[in-house]
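Why Nicotinamide riboside transporter PnuC? Reviewers of the renewal asked for a concrete example.
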Amino acid sequence: MNLLPEFLSASAFALWGSPVTWLELVASALALVMVGCNMREIHWGWPLAIVSSLLYVVVFANARIYGDAALQVFFAFVALWGWAQWLRGFRADGSALRVSRLSPRGTAYALLACAIAWPVVALFLRRFTNTDVPWWDGFVTGLSLVGQFLLGRKFIENWLIWLAVNVVSVGLFIHKGLWLTTALYAVFAVLSVAGFLAWQRRLPKATTKAVPA
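Here is what the prediction returned.
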């Protein structure tokens, strides 16, 4: 049974022979505004992330990209945590949560988390779902978990992880014929660079000292 309003499931238009539903259109628009908020450290991006993620659960599930579909459910819950972090979070030393760099140890942990998450997620998808792209789906899903944590804690390196995720996602969505989402993630890739540069300008001027995760 379709629990969505009928108009969301309907085709809004077609791109290169593939239909683009109103559902995908609305989810894409919300996601784009969300990234804009993240770049400017506007906390309202987090509730937008919740709504967009829940819509994309259906979009990705219909395309048999189950890792990304499950990831959107995770994002919806983690967005609540991220919202709370941006509103009331603080560092281990008690200072306010602000844009910072990872320490060398934090960077090593982040890279290790990416290296572990990718194959673990990919093997899970290969074993328990009928996805035809377990390794690409696993890469996007695994690295997004790390990127979301770093974003919630305002570490500038989150943008570099999102850049890798977005570039790979473009190829994945081309393969699936999700052309509007392909274009969206191409824009996201550009915004990942813009976000990194914007946050670099927000780093404390008095010190370049990195902080642990």
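The chain has eight helices and two strands. This is the kind of structural detail the renewal will allow us to pursue systematically.
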